[in-house]
Amino acid sequence: MKFPYNKKAGKMTMDLENPVGVYRVNALARINVVDKIPTPLAQKELEEFRNQFGRPAQATLLFHWARLIELVYCTERLLELLDEPDITSTDIRAKVTPRAARGIGSVEASRGTLIHDYETDEKGIVKDLNLLVATVQNNAAMNIAVKKTARDLIKGGMVSLLCRMTFR
Predict the structure, then answer these.
(1) What share of residues in the chain are helix, strand, coil (percent, to 5)?
(2) Nearest to 114 by CA among 128, 135, 129, 139
(3) Is the predicted pLDDT of residue 89 greater than 90, yes or no?
C-alpha cells in the first residue's frame, strides 16, 4: 500500500513519538479543522467534544465520536433539504458524449478524502486510473496507532481488545 505524506513537513518518518509528514483523512480530521457546524444539535456535540479533547484531537478511537457528530449534522441537514426543489426534481440526467479525455476529481466521503484520476480513450473507455482512497491516506497513521497500541497493550502474548479496535 502507498504511504502518501505531507511533503512540506519534510521527509516522512513514522517515529512513534514524533511522526513527520503523517496525516489522516476522515471524520476526525474534518472535526479538527471545522470552526463550527451550522445545525444546533451537531454544534452542541462539537462543543462538548472540544471541551473534553481539545483541538486537534488525535486519539484514534475519537474517530467514532467524530462520526457521530457528522451523523447528527447529516440528519439535521437532511430534514432541511427534504423540500428543496433541486433535490426533488426528476430532471437528473445529463447527456454524455464519449471522448478521449482525462478527469481528476476529489470528494470528501464519509471515510475520508477520495482522489480519482481517470483517462479515457476516444470511445470513453477507461484506459488509465489512479485512486488515492482514504485507507491509503490513513495508512501511516494507522500503522503508528497499531504499533503504539501493540507496544502498550500486548502483555505476555495476550492481545487486548483495544488493540483490535485500533486496527479496525
Answers:
(1) 45, 15, 40
(2) 135
(3) no
Which residues contact residue 57 at a Cβ distance below 8 angstroms, ignoring those fewer than 6 apart?
Answer: 28, 31, 32, 49, 66
CB-CB contact of 137 with 21 (8 Å) = no
CB count in 10 Å sphere of residue 146: 15
Rounded Cα distance, 81 and 60, in Å:
32
Residue ranges per structural domain of the chain: 7-98+132-167, 99-131
| Nearest alpha-carbon partner for 110 in 81, 77, 75, 134 | 134
pTM listed for this prediction: 0.74
Q: Residue 163 has what pLDDT?
A: 67
Which residues lie across from 111 on neighbouring strands? none
The yes-or-no verdict on residue 158 having pLDDT over 90 is no
In single-letter form, the type of residue at position 119 comes to E
Q: Give the confidence band of 7 by pLDDT, cuts at 50, 70, 90.
A: very high
Sheet holding 126-132, edge to edge: 101-109, 112-120, 126-132
Give residues with Cβ within 8 angstroms of 110, minimum separation 6: 27, 67, 70
Q: Which three cell numbers stand for residue 86?
A: 433541486
Q: Which residues pair with 85 in a beta bridge?
A: none
Within its chain, how far is the Cα of 156 from the centroid? Answer: 34
